[in-house]
Amino acid sequence: MKKTIALLLVLVLALGMLAGCGGSNDTAEAPAADSGETAETPAAEISVAAIETAYGSEMWQQVAEAFTAETGIKVNLTTDKNLEDVIGPAMQGGEFPDVIHLATGREAGLTEQFIKDKNIADITDVLSMTVPGEDVTVADKIAGGFTETSLTNPYGDGKTYLAPMFYSPCGLFYNAGLFAEKGWEVPTTWDEMWELGDKAMEEGIYLFTYPTTGYFDAFLYALMYTVGGPEFFDAATHYEDGIWDTEEAKECFDIIAKLATYTNPITPAQANDQDFTQNQQLVLDNKALFMPNGTWIVGEMAEAPRAEGFQWGMTALPAATEGGDCYSYTWFEQAWIPAGAENIDAAKQFIAFLYSDTACEIFAAAGAIQPVLGIADTLEGDNQMFYSIYDDGAKAAMGNFASYTAVAGLGTVREVFMDPVNSLVNGEITEEQWIENIKTASAQMLANIQS
Fold first, then answer.
1. Is 33 within a domain?
2. Same domain, 254 and 151
């Protein structure tokens, strides 16, 4: 009998220990809400680093708080206008944010470096995740095409590594009030553009300026589509052998080189991340007619002085020939997870939440428009005009140059293709020198292309 009782006691203790172990996991059940619902709260916290742009940083704080309220995951948020300088030192020491919102095309090239080194986590499964707080998946929310481009799938392996964020139709921005005052028509072909440039110069107004050479990414991509369509774009952005000797490539180079001669000469001196708004100011002051930009320009220059009667206008790039297609590049930012992040699962939840109605409303209030279905219908004012450009006959251009493995002495796409525009404007290099440098670099890019 004593043996039997002892055995029973041992079994009870064992069952108690198993029950205790079974109740210890990575999530803790939150107290029931007033409605009687319960929510599982992952016992985790994540670090999020986001570039502070014209949209400001407050929207990120609000989204982080909303995410915590929905999931229970705490967010340690870092925002800065020079984000690379803030997070760079720690990352060199092996400490990575769990989520980084930093687009390609910036002067520091940090995102491009992570892509080249294949240090970005695969987030394909995020597309099939249910948006926190909703009953639809992320893929159900994102507009078509945004996860099928090299900007999100840089290796061409059918997987998504960067999440598409705030999108903006890009094009040539101008003072519509000035055009109305002068009775000028917005050019629909490049021949008309040169004619307008000569006419404006007679009144001391330059045809063109640009914030920084980085803004030539969207310009060049749309131009490639304009002169050669998607076939030429795909071949050029994958450095196809001999592509830069084609008639389409020569036309692209000729247009940019000629545009350099119509550019306000003060532009290169101000074409940097500190002074770029002074180049944008040239359009507001009627010292230049057009500049390549995105819809964020309105908020970025909201407090800037402007000529009397100023009114924002936006047009796609002119067609190569009469009756040809006009293209507007769809530029969008990206969010991604470093491969070395400690909390990848929770980081994926955060990225999924960025497409929630709650997050989209917060972002939109600051002027940042997420690429989700139906959002354009909710816009007003200038944004309604900008985002309707594709309804007015322009075609959408999307994609970018293929990634390639970093090679000593080989610059970034921006350094090779776009930064030399400053030297074209200053007369420091010729069009032929620029083309030869592109051919040399492109051959190396092709030899080291990532797949």
1. no
2. no
Mean pLDDT of 136-159: 88
The mean pLDDT value for 320-348 works out to 95
Same domain, 374 and 434: no
- Which range marks the domain in which residue 375 is found? 43-168+331-384
The average pLDDT across 269-294 equals 96
Averaged confidence pLDDT in the chain = 89
Q: Are residues 358 and 273 in the same domain?
A: no
List, for residues 179-204, the tens digit of each pLDDT value: 999 999 999 999 999 999 999 999 99
**What string of H, E and C letters represents the secondary structure of the chain?**
CHHHHHHHHHHHHHHHHHHHHHCCCCEEECCCCCCCCCCEEECCEEEEEEECCCCCCHHHHHHHHHHHHHHCCEEEEEEECCHHHHHHHHHHCCCCCCEEECCCCCCCCHHHHHHHCCCECCCHHHHHCECCCCCCEHHHHECCCCCCCCCCCCCCCCCCCEEEEEEEECEEEEEHHHHHHHCCCCCCEHHHHHHHHHHHHCCCCEEECCCCHHHHHHHHHHHHHHHHHHHHHHHHHCCCCCHHHCHHHHHHHHHHHHHHHCECCCHHHHCCCCCHHHHHHHHHCCCEEEEEECCCHHHHCCCCCCCCCCCEEEECECECCCCCCCEEEEEEEEEECECCCCCHHHHHHHHHHCCCHHHHHHHHHCCCCCCECCHHHHCCHHHHHHHCHHHHCCEEECCCCCCECCCCCCCCHHHHHHCHHHHHHHCCCCHHHHHHHHHHHHHHHHHCECC
